[in-house]
């Protein structure tokens, strides 16, 4: 468990690689087998970088990640990591970035299955109209993260 200003986060590691970072009541919930047995040891790197992120001093994560998904999902999650801190992209922009401009719905589905919340910044993806759309941690957390990155969040 990793404490954060938006609630405790469940971190999952497979050896040296982080494979998951989940919100309380994450939707969709990760399969219990994906979570494994609880062991809070070995996440100092993640804790430190998340603390820096929430303090506003870290704009990109430098962690060994190993998300499990289809090739397309992994491509989408890779594209999400290229969205600059403090900016947002639409699903269309992500689809274009992965070379599949006609696959907006598939991109949205892959975005929704991102197992590495915050670290792989799916919260930076918004609807074409500029509206906030679904987020595994809920729209209030998405708004918090976007406000934090834009400098609008006051602590």
TrEMBL record:
<feature type="domain" description="Methylguanine DNA methyltransferase ribonuclease-like">
    <location>
        <begin position="3"/>
        <end position="66"/>
    </location>
</feature>
<feature type="domain" description="Methylated-DNA-[protein]-cysteine S-methyltransferase DNA binding">
    <location>
        <begin position="71"/>
        <end position="150"/>
    </location>
</feature>
<comment type="similarity">
    <text>Belongs to the MGMT family.</text>
</comment>
<dbReference type="Pfam" id="PF02870">
    <property type="entry name" value="Methyltransf_1N"/>
</dbReference>
<keyword id="KW-0489">Methyltransferase</keyword>
<dbReference type="InterPro" id="IPR014048">
    <property type="entry name" value="MethylDNA_cys_MeTrfase_DNA-bd"/>
</dbReference>
<comment type="function">
    <text>Involved in the cellular defense against the biological effects of O6-methylguanine (O6-MeG) and O4-methylthymine (O4-MeT) in DNA. Repairs the methylated nucleobase in DNA by stoichiometrically transferring the methyl group to a cysteine residue in the enzyme. This is a suicide reaction: the enzyme is irreversibly inactivated.</text>
</comment>
<dbReference type="InterPro" id="IPR023546">
    <property type="entry name" value="MGMT"/>
</dbReference>
<keyword id="KW-0808">Transferase</keyword>
<dbReference type="InterPro" id="IPR036217">
    <property type="entry name" value="MethylDNA_cys_MeTrfase_DNAb"/>
</dbReference>
<keyword id="KW-0227">DNA damage</keyword>
<dbReference type="GO" id="GO:0032259">
    <property type="term" value="P:methylation"/>
</dbReference>
<dbReference type="InterPro" id="IPR036388">
    <property type="entry name" value="WH-like_DNA-bd_sf"/>
</dbReference>
<dbReference type="InterPro" id="IPR008332">
    <property type="entry name" value="MethylG_MeTrfase_N"/>
</dbReference>
<feature type="active site" description="Nucleophile; methyl group acceptor">
    <location>
        <position position="122"/>
    </location>
</feature>
<protein>
    <recommendedName>
        <fullName>Methylated-DNA--protein-cysteine methyltransferase</fullName>
        <ecNumber>2.1.1.63</ecNumber>
    </recommendedName>
</protein>
<dbReference type="InterPro" id="IPR036631">
    <property type="entry name" value="MGMT_N_sf"/>
</dbReference>
<dbReference type="InterPro" id="IPR001497">
    <property type="entry name" value="MethylDNA_cys_MeTrfase_AS"/>
</dbReference>
<dbReference type="Pfam" id="PF01035">
    <property type="entry name" value="DNA_binding_1"/>
</dbReference>
<dbReference type="GO" id="GO:0003908">
    <property type="term" value="F:methylated-DNA-[protein]-cysteine S-methyltransferase activity"/>
</dbReference>
<keyword id="KW-0963">Cytoplasm</keyword>
<keyword id="KW-0234">DNA repair</keyword>
């Amino acid at each position: 468990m990793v404490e954060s200003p938006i609630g405790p986060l469940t971190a999952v590691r497979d050896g040296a690689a982080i494979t998951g970072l989940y919100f309380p009541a994450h939707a969709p919930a990760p399969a219990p087998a994906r979570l494994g047995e609880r062991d809070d040891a070995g996440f100092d790197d993640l804790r430190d970088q998340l603390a820096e992120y929430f303090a506003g001093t870290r704009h990109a994560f430098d962690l060994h990640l190993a998300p499990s998904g289809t090739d397309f999902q992994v491509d989408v999650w890779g594209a999400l990591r290229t969205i600059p801190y403090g900016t947002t992209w639409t699903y269309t922009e992500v689809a274009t970035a992965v070379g599949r401009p006609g696959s907006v719905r598939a991109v949205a589905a892959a975005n929704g299955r991102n197992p590495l919340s915050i670290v792989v910044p799916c919260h930076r993806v918004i609807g074409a109209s500029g509206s906030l759309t679904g987020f595994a941690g809920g729209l209030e957390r998405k708004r918090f993260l976007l406000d934090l990155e834009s400098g609008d969040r006051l602590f």
